[in-house]
Amino acid sequence: MERKEILQAVHTRFARQICNPFNRALREFEMVRPGDRIAVCISGGKDSALLGLLLDDCAARGGFEVRFLAMDPGYPAENRRHIEENMARLGLPLTVFETDVLRIAGRHAPEHPCFLCAKLRRGNLYAQARALGCNKIALGHHYDDAIETVLMGLLYGGQVQAMLPRLAAANYEGMELIRPLYFTREAAVKEWAAYCGLTFLPCACPAAAREQDTKRAEIKALIAGLAAQNPQIEANILNAVKNVDTKKVLGWRDDTGRHSFLDRL
Questions:
Q1: What does CATH list as the number for 3-243?
Q2: What is the pLDDT of residues 26-79, one digit of tens each?
Q3: Which of 33, 36, 51, 240 reaches 20 to 30 Å from 177, CA-CA?
Q4: At a CB cut-off of 8 Å and minimum separation 6, what does 51 contact?
Q5: What is the mean pLDDT of each run of 10 residues along the chain (265 residues)?
Q6: What residues does 137 pair with on adjacent strands?
Q7: What is the Cα–Cα distance from 181 to 144, expressed in whole angstroms?
Q8: pTM for this one?
Q9: Residue 95's beta-bridge partner residues?
């Protein structure tokens, strides 16, 4: 399939699984406005490819512009070529910039490079997006990423936190991050890619190759096991960070510092 057929499949066969939750996220979280210029961050995976196609399709109707931005952090040539071929097939003009993120993260945090790598990637993406005149960057995180993040923070970070659907950039004034696939299920993205005959190479990150990032895989398996017994589990996880009763927490922190329930007694 080429772009026309792939886009048609999104609007027909996958309308309920993809179009509806995508539009719901844009609407519910007020993600885009007329006049926005959005840098869609293309990672090379199925999620960002779908995100790019969806935003490109609705840009003219919504009165905003999109740019498609990919960072080459030092991947093999095959990976970059495959990304470029996929974007050409989807009709999305891609801007690629090169960095030494993998080398730097590998040198300074060889055993656990993921946190530093993500931080460096984000900074580079913001800088390049601003250079393109963009005021927002869009990432391809989906519903499953969101609920996994809640449990990751709770079980391994000892904190209650959510992957926010949009947030202001801390170090880039006037820039914002949005996640339009926030309500889209990973299974739907996989089904769409398979139906359209799109293939994506596995992550070429050395840490992933060494299977260091196993915690998220554990959480994914945990959620799947719980949901098999009770399908409401997944929605409950996300609802838990939407319905926090601040009168019934032991402590919290905000811009003014840390607080305890004892402060209210």
A1: 3.40.50.620
A2: 999 999 999 999 999 998 899 999 999 999 999 999 999 999 999 887 777 888
A3: 240
A4: 40, 138, 139, 140, 180, 181
A5: 95 97 98 98 94 97 96 82 94 89 62 65 87 96 97 94 95 94 98 95 60 76 96 96 93 94 93
A6: 39, 177
A7: 10
A8: 0.91
A9: 69
In the block, tokens 């490109």 appear at 56
Q: Under a CB-based contact definition with an 8 Å cutoff, are residues 29 and 166 in contact? A: yes
Under a CB-based contact definition with an 8 Å cutoff, are residues 124 and 200 in contact? no
Are 187 and 119 contacting, i.e. CB atoms less than 8 angstroms apart?
no
105, 120 Cβ separation under 8 angstroms: yes
pLDDT at 214: 75
The CA-atom distances, in angstroms, between 19 and each of 26, 112, 129, 171, 196 are 11, 37, 26, 32, 16
**Contact partners, residue 203, CB within 8 Å, separation at least 6:** 45
Q: What is the mean pLDDT of the chain?
A: 90
Q: How far is the C-alpha of 164 from the C-alpha of 182, rounded, in Å?
A: 9
- Give residue limits of the domains in the chain: 3-243
CB 135 within 8 A of CB 169: no
